[in-house]
Design a protein that fits this description.
This protein has about 150 residues and is of the alpha/beta class. It contains 5 helices and 5 strands. It has a 3-stranded parallel β-sheet with strand order 2-1-3. It has a two-stranded parallel ribbon with strand order 4-5.
């Protein structure tokens, strides 16, 4: 157990963190900090939960099944606007890394070229930004759910 100045024992606070996806490079900092004992050195007994497509961070956060979760800012804004008492503790990306991609052979070079096309999107939390893009450009697309992790 970590010690505070003056030799008093510091009680660890038990908390859990749910990354929005399964372990991968974008969450490496959380795992490395855990392995190096950074959380415990700051009085935190952290449990890193398994994320993934069947474990939506904000749903589990608002159900009390995790104390902290990672997610997109747009998702947090939507959850907060719908009456959920969630707080954005920190924002680590200035711009979204989400992108729409197409085969070169489809000749899609402008937003207008997507009109009346089929577009595959991941789960609900990953659809906020693309759907806003479609609305901005008044595009009618057929969304095909992408079920692969």
């Amino acid at each position: 157990m970590p010690f505070c100045s003056g030799g008093c024992r510091k009680t660890l606070k038990k908390v859990s963190l749910l990354p929005q996806w399964s372990p991968q490079a974008q969450f490496a900092g959380y795992y490395v900090a855990y392995e190096k004992g950074f959380y415990k050195n700051h009085g935190i007994d952290l449990t890193l939960l398994q994320g993934g497509p069947d474990r939506p961070p904000f749903a589990l956060l608002t159900q009390g099944k995790t104390d902290f979760a990672t997610s997109w800012l747009s998702t947090g804004i939507r959850w907060r606007a719908s009456g959920n008492n969630v707080i954005n503790v920190g924002q680590i990306m200035q711009r979204s890394a989400l992108m729409l991609i197409a085969k070169r052979s489809r000749h899609i070079t402008t937003p207008r070229d997507l009109d009346r096309k089929k577009v595959s999107l991941w789960g609900d939390e990953f659809q906020i930004q693309p759907r806003a893009f479609f609305r901005k450009y008044n595009l009618s697309v057929e969304v095909i759910p992408n079920l692969s992790p």
